[in-house]
Structure formats: C-alpha cells, structure tokens
Amino acid sequence: MTIRTSTLVATGLLAALTGCYYYVPDPPNSKADTYRPVYLAFADARLVQTLGPQPLKMPGKIYVKDNFLLINEVGRGIHVVDNRDPAKPVKLSFISIPGNRELAIKDSILYADNALDIVALNIADPRNVTLVKRLENTFSPTDFPDARNIRFECPDPDKGIVIRWEKTAVAQADCYR
To answer: Taking the CB of the first residue and of the last residue of the chain, which one, N or C, has fewer CB atoms within 10 A?
Structure first.
C-alpha cells in the first residue's frame, strides 16, 4: 500500500468515526445536571410593580434609553439605572415583571413580556412606573428551557406558570430537548 493510499484510508476511517455518536443514558436514580422549572402562581403572574433597586443576579438584555440603562433580569423584571455619569451609574429602581425576558421602548413607553401577556408601561418617572395597557394571553406557556440537548423536569401546569428555569441536579428528569 502506498503512502497516498494509506493516507486516504486513514482520513476516511477518521471521518467515519468522528461522525458516530453513541448516547449512554444516565443510570436510574443517578444525579445529573438538569433544569427545573420555577413556577409562579397564576394569581401573582400579572402583578407588575416598581420596587427599590435590586441586586443583579441573572442579567439578560440591556437597552439604552436617553440617560438610562434598562437591564433585563431574566424571568423577574427590569433594572433601571441612571447612566448620566457612566463612571458612577446609579441604580434607580427595579420594575418587577414576572416571566419577563424581552423589552422594547418607544418614547416613554416600555413594552415587555409578562409571563403570558404583553404589557405597556409608562416609564417617564422610573421610580413610579405605571401600567398603560395589557394584552392578555399573547404567549403560550413555556414548556421547555432555551438550552438544547439537555434533560429537564417536565412542567406541571397545576403548579402555575413557568417563569424561568434553574440548572440543578435531580434524580429523575423525564423530559429531553
């Protein structure tokens, strides 16, 4: 066999082997990283309120509006930060919007998702945000986390609305995405 033939055979064999994938499931009752839904009671899901500044725990998207930064706290709401002096930003308030992940602004109106709804909020006074309008049941309930190729606990609608997912170790995760 020539060197050229050997190289072609080795390359073909390597390509064939790297295309193989064998999935070995975790043994029953073993603890593995998975995602667990975080629920909010239906009665509390539509409660939007302005609170004092809160610590950033799981920041998401950042939106700049005039001299303000609006920082999404995934699944919880939006931080409002006065950024007139970028060297010394000042946390002004936290807009609690359960299930929030997205935001947009036009003029003084903040549009955000609120679990299953869309809300329009007047943010002219960031310390006293007011609800302008709500479009109810715009979205379907969250049935799975954003991540792919992961195991997760199947959501139980009787427990409320899934507002976010937390990575954790559990003995049994019946769902996979």
So the answer is: N
pLDDT digits (tens, 9 = 90+) for 93-115: 999 999 999 999 999 999 999 98
Global pTM value: 0.72
- Cα–Cα dist 100/40, whole Å: 12
Residue the block writes with tokens 């609690």? 96
| pLDDT tens digits along 114-138 | 989 999 999 999 999 999 999 999 9
Instruction: For residue 81, give the nearest of 100, 53, 59, 113 by alpha carbon.
Output: 53
